[in-house]
Write a structure and sequence with these properties.
This protein has one helix at residues 2-37. With 38 residues, it is mainly α. The mean pLDDT is 86.
């Protein structure tokens, strides 16, 4: 049904947001670490 399709799209978008946020925070902490080392 249309509703289940929208539900899947919502879940996929949520997962992508989470992955994007995780990748951003990981690169951010790595950036902070290199700044501390220098």
């Amino acid at each position: 049904t249309q509703e289940s399709v929208e539900r899947v799209i919502f879940e996929v978008n949520k997962a992508l947001d989470h992955a994007e946020h995780f990748a951003y925070s990981r690169s951010f902490t790595q950036h902070q670490r290199t700044k501390l080392l220098n």
